[in-house]
């Protein structure tokens, strides 16, 4: 039997807390019920998409939603054409996009390529989003039920929060990479088991494989998890120095195996990310560093929960809603920590995580109720170009706080559960005196002393407190909005005679981070069979810094300004010369304008630049092959 003191997931001191060891054989019914409930909740969260899965996108982040639909199409395109998935030339033609240097979700889109080919990227997006939420809750439940708590109900509550916390639901509005956290509980468990004697090779190999796979899902969440594990290990070492000294050699050996395997498996993709075509070094101006968490956000109910009020976003909703726990949960967390930290090592470690990552999330200036105060925050001391940290948002550090709160909820429920269990144990063993520890077995440390029967009220009170804190955070179905389908000319393949191999289709407006959301979907919903200029991505500028979208060329700038003004400016011969030059740069063979709120002015603009169009099916077409040859 492995000494539990070597595992920070458990408390080695039997005088402090009840052992969290579980029997090897467990009823499967409770696990299946928990997973089934998570699946149903995932379906419920995505309910508005399923009403018209091919015609709706996120109301909050429609462009992000369309980007991830495009990513699912990219995974299918790479598999179908046996192309390198780390790069694509189907967007931002002719330069292309470095997919490793962008949020590309390759660990999901490539394995699921056959399903995307069968169902299409729109259905695949909605299906995967709900499944990712449920899977994260499921692995959280597994971690808690196998390593931290005895009560399966406690594990269910904690797992539900890990998978469906307000911050996670906020990112579910168009950012499935931040809800795809199902590997993170497995990584945490494997890190904390590296000190097990005789198993360092196996634990290291498993951890290395998990870390490598997570790189292809979300590197930022992997970095946050690594920082959290570092804090957990240091907090454990301070509180258990003797056990740490006994396990440090084995731990480091396993860590070396994990790091070596991950380095071998991910060396080329990481090199490609920082040195491949269209790679970049940091974001221009360190734009994310100002995104610190508002202190009032911690006690505010999130927009997409039953107790949330969207109007609050106008004051403190300047950044992502990564905390927004509501005041009942904050109050419960404070009370639970006061009651549990003396007896529970996991609770003490959760407290350290909450404090450290809350302070670190504040940003360069303390923000209170939407007002930036003059008080300097920790990020005011962090250089904008610090490697690995240069692209992090301070507010996202609170996702670690959310995970620690989920663990604390499970510990709180489990503590209430044990109150009832100890009363029952006292009745079954009348010879045991109140306050006397039960005899230890060869496999388990001694459970805590039974409490007096008069304290049996603590169990329902504990359950009620947890329920009242989390029920207001029950998620609403994600809001969705209708979006126009692509023109029939695009979906039916009418474009094919106009776009020979090696040439591009130029949609108007040209896709960008601000404009051209529908035209980006033309590419996604036609299996990316034609390349397009522009797009929604991060690429290098002339200095090698990361910027959003393709650098604007004169013609794309003219298109965007015309859309904003609603009127065509006076065109010059220089405008026409630049338009032809831009079309040659894009390797264009055809320019296509579909239905658009600014269709009239856009058609007048393009006509003034390159001549009159033809009406083909439901679009305006400018065949420019002769013009740019």
From TrEMBL:
<keyword id="KW-0812">Transmembrane</keyword>
<feature type="transmembrane region" description="Helical">
    <location>
        <begin position="388"/>
        <end position="411"/>
    </location>
</feature>
<feature type="region of interest" description="Disordered">
    <location>
        <begin position="422"/>
        <end position="450"/>
    </location>
</feature>
<feature type="domain" description="DUF6311">
    <location>
        <begin position="70"/>
        <end position="371"/>
    </location>
</feature>
<feature type="transmembrane region" description="Helical">
    <location>
        <begin position="349"/>
        <end position="368"/>
    </location>
</feature>
<protein>
    <recommendedName>
        <fullName>DUF6311 domain-containing protein</fullName>
    </recommendedName>
</protein>
<feature type="transmembrane region" description="Helical">
    <location>
        <begin position="324"/>
        <end position="342"/>
    </location>
</feature>
<keyword id="KW-1133">Transmembrane helix</keyword>
<dbReference type="InterPro" id="IPR046278">
    <property type="entry name" value="DUF6311"/>
</dbReference>
<feature type="transmembrane region" description="Helical">
    <location>
        <begin position="153"/>
        <end position="172"/>
    </location>
</feature>
<feature type="transmembrane region" description="Helical">
    <location>
        <begin position="32"/>
        <end position="51"/>
    </location>
</feature>
<feature type="transmembrane region" description="Helical">
    <location>
        <begin position="222"/>
        <end position="238"/>
    </location>
</feature>
<feature type="transmembrane region" description="Helical">
    <location>
        <begin position="250"/>
        <end position="271"/>
    </location>
</feature>
<keyword id="KW-0472">Membrane</keyword>
<dbReference type="Pfam" id="PF19830">
    <property type="entry name" value="DUF6311"/>
</dbReference>
<feature type="transmembrane region" description="Helical">
    <location>
        <begin position="125"/>
        <end position="144"/>
    </location>
</feature>
<feature type="region of interest" description="Disordered">
    <location>
        <begin position="1"/>
        <end position="23"/>
    </location>
</feature>
